[in-house]
Design goal:
Number of strands: 29
Low-confidence stretches: 434-458, 741-750
Distance between the termini: 61 Å
Structural class: alpha/beta
Length: 929
RNA sequence: GGGCAUUUAGCUCAGUUGGUUAGAGCGCGUGCCUCACAUGCACGAGGUCAGAGGUUCAACUCCUCUAAUGCCCACCA
């Protein structure tokens, strides 16, 4: 079976096969197991609308590496998978689908629409889950969760209830970020600001009467970036300290175009430096103005509809889109001579994170969570180090946001999502609303809510918070009860992910075992949305942190540094890459080029790195498998290690392997994945393949060589498995029949340890085999071979030509080289090899001078003495340069006095060595005449 | 307005606690289809570590400032 291994690795023949095998054998499944320690990662649940992009590829590769590593390390390793219902995003997708049929969701009605979304979810919602499998993700699919699962939804209502009872949830009229396209409120995080090139309009607001004022003007000029909102102005504000306006008291202004009379108010919030120092006050469309109006007892005037068109308060502009109205208003103001000027004004505007529409600050009645009380313990937890961020710098970002946290608007005016567990008694609501001013009433209710838990319940008459729909109103007994129309922010369910996925609030055994989870792997964009809120929720409802470590990886960009996005057309599709290069190549490449926490710049070409490495592994394995004889490789490595047959190369590669293994572990434990990957790359390719396998060839049939080839390959595969699960599994199965006298029936379920690499233990570092002396001796041999190759290359000697060489070496080196003659002959293509303590340089030969060694290669037919002189003089120069540097140090009295003794001693020794080398080089040089 | 990150070979980037000659991949040059691998092998060229100060016996590494680029945050009418 071994001889027909193809000479190039073909991922297509292995990936699906092994993934299916792992999955059907339930090798990803984890369960509470008191005999093992838990290791758990909850996946950042991708949106059901999601399709795999490179960000996911990076994120999930990292998680899979950790999960597989810990699993092999003997942990009960659970990767909890799932998807997020992604309220607005999913609703948008389905609405688009409806639009293609010429329908709107309103035509269907809420119930039918929701049904339609569920259908869509059933059909397309697991696309990304399928794609994650192609990556090799070893998620426990039996536990797949969805944020709208029944029990998950129960957790969400439970949380709402508990927070409400604690007085941390309130309803009120406030300025929120309103997306006129999605027609819903958004949280601050959902409306990221973008810098824009805007305009600042200066508009004259005439005074009603002009007689009693000292100024000559009969108007006041205000500056605004959103002229259309002036229709909702209720006052003009100036700073009380502003001298320009100190004589203005209680004057009345006529709002242009509208004719409404406005007061001038004085408020310190107004920045005298900005614009004219006079600001129009539009409480229904600006948070500052809203606050100011409340302070001065002014009623807001809303001038827009939820869809961003002007409403009936806008008079003749009613029905126009907000930006259309802006143009019209400017035209009209111009006509009336009320437009003073228009300045360019860069500013930043919130944009809907789902549809990128400019959000409108908009007064509306929404539900909020008071965040300060939740933030407090979450700040503590990070400050005290109970949660650690990697890289550490994100700690500050997190703390800064937490310390300035704002209340969270959680109600959304969409249909797809968790309905608020809020019910209203029509009877009570109607009676309580009579005659009340909405704005002030709500403002008071917040205060009261916060003051006392008991008051909170009765605060708003007619509101019932309940897990299930109440039959009757507890106050008036009426059965005329309806549920709040709104749904909750998607993140109001995702923030429960680390425990709601385990069935909280039931105290299930898995929850106890796996919570707190071990690590969270995510991207920087999501720290506020998700990470911070999970920490708050975990502390609030579980009383402990939801995870110990947070690893923040970089953002995936194209090779010019732009974010990958569909609209930019610079997407590299992971599935394309998997198709062309293989999943292992994708995984290894992306992990190799991602320095801890730095952004990743990708291009198609970069995936060749992983593909080539996979191919290298494949071919090295192919070579070994082709040559292995099962009877040779049964013995224990530790026993064989002490056999006299074990030679320098054998011991060296083992020393290197265990050294590298410990480096990989250190790197993985500190989330330095690229380092772990490159350590293995360097080891496997350059130490194992380039040197050891080449060394092994002359003695390929000897037992010691076979054992070492096999053991190092087999262990390397295990270490590489978390990074490249497919190819390592495939090779593992080719290796199996050679090593087990009686191979098990292929992949017997009970005996995973034998049948699959992913259930193998991670290799232990055998410290006793890490041997610096062996490493040093091997270095002499390697240097020697390189030196000969060097000479051959310099004189252009065809590889088919074997040369004779003479080595003059000091005693220790003679012993090492003499024992390794076969290697020198093989790897440097040497015919006659003479090693001695006093070899004489033959005439017309090239020379190499190393520490303790000189090498002479007689080259009558090739050599040109003049060029050889040049070659040597270059080396002489190089060494002189270094010596000069060392001399400068050693002649510095301060250095000798202050530097540690070891450092001084090392310099001295180095100087002695180099001087010796230099002397011998010069002799050789002189010899050339 | 605050904050963060980046600046090292032609390109893309590593470089943990300051201490021999600063590394890799790609690209480039030369020679090789050497019986595992041309997705390969061997050898090589290429860097005053953004700039200026400072700390230190010693700075790519620590501190200050400057410049360029990118990102995040903020109630900039």
């Amino acid at each position: 079976m071994t001889s027909n291994i193809p000479p190039a690795y073909n991922p297509k023949l292995t990936e699906e096969k092994w993934y299916n095998f792992w999955e059907t054998e339930k090798l990803f499944h984890a369960e509470a197991n008191p005999e093992k320690k838990p290791y758990c990662i909850v996946i950042p649940p991708p949106n059901v609308t999601g399709i795999l992009h490179m960000g996911h590829a990076l994120n999930n590769t990292i998680q899979d590496i950790l999960i597989r590593y810990k699993r092999m390390k003997g942990f009960e390793s659970l990767w909890m998978p799932g998807t997020d219902h992604a309220g607005i995003a999913t609703q948008n997708v389905v609405e688009k689908e409806l639009a293609r049929e010429g329908k709107k969701r309103q035509n269907l009605g809420r119930e039918k629409f929701i049904e339609r979304v569920w259908q869509w979810k059933e059909k397309y919602g697991s696309t990304i889950i399928t794609q994650l499998r192609k990556l090799g993700s070893s998620c426990d699919w039996d536990r797949l969760r969805f944020t709208m699962d029944e029990d998950y939804s129960r957790s969400v209502s439970e949380v709402f209830l508990r927070l409400y009872e604690k007085g941390l949830i309130y309803r009120g009229n406030y300025i929120v970020n309103w997306c006129p396209r999605c027609q819903t409120a958004l949280s601050d995080e959902e409306a990221p600001h973008k810098d824009m090139e805007g305009l600042l309009y200066y508009i004259k607001y005439p005074f009603k009467t002009t007689d009693r004022r000292p100024q000559t003007e009969d108007y006041i000029v205000v500056a605004t970036t959103r002229p259309e909102t002036m229709l909702g102005d209720v006052a003009v504000a100036v700073n009380p300290k502003d001298k320009r306006y100190k004589n203005i008291h209680n004057e009345t202004i006529i709002l242009p175009l509208v004719g409404r009379e406005l007061k001038i108010i004085k408020d310190a919030i107004v920045e005298p430096e900005f614009g004219t120092g006079a600001v129009k006050v539009t409480p229904a469309h600006d948070p500052n103005d809203f606050a100011m109006a409340k302070k001065h007892g002014l009623e807001p005037v809303l001038v827009m509809n939820p869809d961003g068109t002007m409403n009936k308060n806008a008079g003749e502009y009613a029905g126009m889109d907000r930006f259309e109205a802006r143009e019209a208003i400017i035209e009209d103001l111009k006509e009336r001579g009320l437009l003073v000027k228009i300045d360019k004004h860069p500013y930043s505007l919130g944009h809907c994170y789902r549809c990128h529409t400019i959000v409108e600050p908009y007064l509306s009645k929404q539900w909020f969570v008071s965040m300060k009380p939740l933030a407090k313990p979450a700040i503590e937890a990070v400050r005290k180090g109970r949660i650690k961020f990697y890289p550490e710098r994100w700690t500050r970002v997190y703390l800064n946001w937490m310390e300035n946290i704002q209340d969270w608007c959680i109600s959304r005016q969409i249909w797809w999502g968790h309905r608020l567990p809020v019910y209203y008694c029509k009877n009570c609501v109607n009676s309580s609303l009579r005659g009340a001013s909405v704005a002030s009433d709500e403002a008071i209710s917040k205060e009261r809510l916060l003051r006392s838990q008991k008051l909170a319940r009765n605060d708003e008459i007619g509101i019932i918070i309940s897990r299930v729909k109440p039959e009757k109103c507890p106050d008036c007994g009426s059965a005329d009860i309806y549920q709040d129309e709104d749904v909750l922010d998607t993140w109001f369910s995702s923030w429960l992910w680390p425990f709601a996925t385990f069935g909280w609030p039931q105290a299930k055994k898995d929850l106890k075992y796996f919570y707190p989870t071990s690590a969270l792997i995510t991207a920087q964009e999501i720290i506020f949305f998700w990470v911070a809120r999970m920490i708050m929720a975990g502390l609030e409802f579980m009383k402990t942190v939801p995870f110990r470590d947070v690893y923040i990886h970089g953002t995936v960009r194209d090779d010019t540094g732009k974010k990958m996005s569909k609209s930019l057309g610079n997407i590299i599709d992971p599935l394309d890459i998997i198709n062309e290069f293989g999943a292992d190549a994708l995984r290894f490449s992306i992990i190799s080029i991602t320095a801890a926490g730095q952004d990743v710049f990708l291009s198609r070409q970069k995936f060749e790195l992983g593909r080539n490495f996979a191919n290298k592994i494949w071919n090295a394995s192919r070579f070994i498998i082709m040559n292995l004889k099962p009877e040779n490789v049964k013995s224990d490595l530790c026993v064989s290690y002490n056999s006299p047959d074990m030679n320098l190369a054998d011991k060296w590669i083992l020393s290197r392997f265990y050294q590298r293994l410990s480096e990989v572990e250190t790197a993985l434990e500190s989330y330095r994945f690229n380092e772990a990957a490159s350590v293995m790359y360097e080891f496997f390719w350059h130490e194992f393949c380039d040197w050891y396998i080449e060394f092994s060839k002359p003695s390929i049939n000897e037992t010691h060589t076979q054992i070492v080839l096999y053991k190092v390959l087999e262990k390397s595969l295990r270490v590489l498995h978390p990074f490249m699960p497919f190819i390592t599994e495939e090779i593992w199965h080719s290796l199996l029949p050679l090593t087990i006298a009686c191979p098990p029936k292929p992949w017997r379920r009970r005996d995973h340890r034998l049948s699959t690499i992913m259930s193998q233990p991670w290799p232990h570092v055998q410290k006793q085999m890490i041997n610096k002396k062996i490493d040093g001796q091997m270095q002499v041999l390697i240097d020697c071979i390189v030196a000969v190759r060097n000479i051959r290359a310099a004189w252009n000697i065809n590889p088919s030509v074997r040369v004779d060489i003479f080595i003059k070496a000091k005693k220790d080196a003679v012993a090492v080289l003499a024992a390794s003659q076969v290697y020198i002959k093989n790897l440097a293509r040497v015919e006659g090899l003479n090693i001695s303590g006093d070899a004489k340089k033959p005439p017309k030969s090239a020379a190499a001078v190393l520490k303790d060694i000189e090498i002479y290669v007689p080259l009558e037919r090739y050599i040109n003495l003049g060029e050889e002189r040049q070659r040597l003089s270059k080396k002489i120069e190089e060494i002189c340069g270094i010596l000069k540097g060392i001399d400068a140090k050693l002649s510095s009295r301060d250095f000798l006095k202050r530097a540690p003794k070891e450092v001084v001693e090392a310099k001295r020794q180095r100087k002695a060595e180099l001087s010796d080398t230099l002397k011998r080089l010069e002799e050789n040089y002189a010899d050339l005449g």
